[in-house]
Amino acid sequence: MELKKVTFENIDQLIALEVREDQREFVAPNVLSLAEAYVAVSGGHAAQPFGIYEGGGPVGFVMFGYGSLDDPDEPESAKDSYCLWRFMIDEKHQGRGLGKRALEVCLEYLRERPLGPAYKVWLSYEPENTAARGLYHKFGFVENGEMCGEEIVAVRDL
């Protein structure tokens, strides 16, 4: 499994990836994530979107942030930390353990400090998204009492 940068060659494939219908209220479409990455970077902030690839083909999408976006909803945890901003496995590839493997690959990548020094990574999820909560807790993410808008914030050391 590997992370691949978004390019003109793979952007259409990555935009086409979707979660199951019952998960769509929890995960933004990849095209929106790419638009947000563009806005962040053009505003002088950090965002790195990647395709998640297994066996040569795309199976998911992830986007990382670094530091503050100056968003009034972002938690205090955003300062000097990495953010697992988006994370999804396509509906056709779910149920095979790829989410766990992808999360391991993502954390390994962030341990390299690709955008600058940081010792923590944070993420947020809807309170009703028990599947995401369970996965993230298995990987050591701990809720810290902060909220990002209406979402629960969880943090872990890199």
Task: Please outline the helices and strands.
Layout: E1 2-5, H1 11-16, H2 30-42, E2 46-54, E3 57-66, E4 82-89, H3 98-111, E5 120-125, H4 130-138, E6 142-148, E7 151-157
Parallel strand pairs: 4-5
Antiparallel strand pairs: 1-2, 2-3, 3-4, 5-7, 6-7
Gyration radius, to the nearest Å?
Answer: 15 Å
What spatial order of strands do you see in the largest sheet? 1-2-3-4-5-7-6
Low-pLDDT residue intervals, each spanning 5 or more residues: none
Shape call: globular
Report on the biggest sheet. Answer: 7 strands, mixed
Termini Cα gap: 20 Å
**Percentage of residues in strands:** 25-35%
- For the secondary structure, the number of strands is 7
What is the CATH superfamily label? Gcn5-related N-acetyltransferase (GNAT)
CATH class: Alpha Beta
Order of helices and strands: EHHEEEHEHEE
Task: Give the structural class.
Answer: alpha+beta
Q: What is the residue-mean pLDDT, rounded to a whole number?
A: 95
